[in-house]
Amino acid sequence: xxxxxxxxxxxxxLELSGEWGARxxxxxxxQLAAVDVHAARELRIATAGVTRLDLSxxxxxxxxxxxxxxxxxxxxxxxELPDQLRLIDETLKDAPATPAPDAAAEASGALSAIGRYxxxxxxxxxxxxxxxxxATSVALASAGGRARxxxxxxxxxxxxxxxxxxxxxxxxxxLISVIIAYMSAQQLRGLGADIYVVDLVAIGVLRExxxxxxxxxxxxxxxxxxxxxLGSMELNxxxxxxxxxxxxxxxxxxxxRLLGLAVALPLLTIxxxxxxxxxxxxxxxxxxDMPLTQYVSRVNYAISPSTFWVGLLKAPVFAVLIGMAGCxxxxxxxxxxxxxGRQVTQAVVQAIFLVILADALFAVxxxxxxx
Amino acid sequence: MYxxxxxxxxxxxxxxxxxxxxxxxxxQPDEVFGIVGSSGSGKSVLLRTILGLQxxxxxxxxxxxxxxxxxxxxxxxxxxxxxxxxxxxxxxxSALTLxxxxxxxxxxxxxxxxxxxxxxxxxxxxxxxxxxxxxxxYPAELSGGMVKRxxxxxxLALDPTLLFLDEPTSGLDPVSAAAFDxxxxxxxxxLKLTIVMITHDLDSIFRTCNRVGVIVDKRMESxxxxxIVDHPNPWIQAYFHGERARARTGAARGT
Lengths: 371, 255
Hints:
heterodimer; A: 371 residues; Transcription Regulator spoIIAA; 2 domains
């Protein structure tokens, strides 16, 4: 199989035989490379022995012929020029053989990278503001009775983002409160200040951790699902179809999600608070041998009436931030599956970032207000 | 010599719903075989079965003589390298450029140097009538007609002898569809391909197919194009002699 070289008075004859296909390509290329094209003035190629010649095989042969001609040999074929070779010649006859270089690859310096990043960031900012504006105007319109609220849709989102998240939120709240109680018990016991474990758990869970952890879980669960859902709808032109039927996608897709989440997240936070306090109670009972009644009265003593509300107040704000990040990135998906993955990632990262940033702002605000 | 593709006694069932019940089909080398059937008659399921994407309840599917319904993934690998598929929506990998799309099967199946990889992939892209500039584009940047051509370029990546086309002309305007038929014929003649295509497009059938298989009543009636139009089955009659088909059928018979 392959290439056989015969030398005679007239020149060199190459007898090709066997299968000339994509599978044998590497081998054939090596055999042809071994043929010394410079030694021959006249090169004849016999293809009668070839049992199968596909495009890849023909391409290798063509490349060889080009090399031989460039080296000054007169190349001819014995019998007909194989059809496949003619096909390649025909395909490649006009236009360059190599594609134009990538425009993106050319400008790859650090400076241009910074520039591109800045431009992309600016564009993101404008798009984000536009999204915020649209969502707000739809929300105002529905509050003013000019756009419909969709209770069934909202209820579905309360179920999807709230009810189904209950087990995982409860579990995480329980574990976190146990961890806080356990860690602080170890430290405080040495000082004989066991009782402050209760303060730490109660205030920590109610003010910060209950709502914060719930929001982070919901950002992972629902922020990503909003982005993926809207993104694939966008890819499937469903959003265009809505717009074309004069239905505002912000009214039917974005607003119910935001409102649903704004209902679900406070409810989840209450559950997290409850379970967190229960977890603390269990640990105090069994690790510190603190009677339940003492735990309850200490909790009552430790927290002020505002502690619970300070935590709960943050929930709807976080919900809107998570929903906005999810819907915004979902609506931005264009074109491809990779883009979908990128936007979903962005949605979750941004949602968590915004939640923590807002929590920090709340902390400063509440401190100034002496709450 | 084996038929390029031979299906015998194929049964496909989904729960209660029987899609194929003893379907036979045979495609000879160098043929362009059209598969026709009403919507929901199981054309896509048939294609999926032939491609080994789904195992039938009974029956055999032979590609070049080997029964793919009984082979393991590893044994299927060399057989899958012998056919190419152009899916209806193109199914181009959206994260890769067109050039990379064509190169992917080559990289997976062949051991080629990088330069050969680029040139061969580009050759396939040019062969289906796409400009070289398209090679660097992502599927999302290609028009519908270009995606269809690109899908064929990728299907040709491994120089297959058997090519499956799923509704190649659907969604194309008549002029593009006619150009596409020409491309199919051109490739078939020059590359000596066996082509199996699912289509609804009568123009396409009359232009490109030698033989046609019609899925009726969970089986397939197949014959040459000239003879199948006179088949007594009412659906086939309606298909080839309906309002939309009349002019064409007359032309095929030379009347």
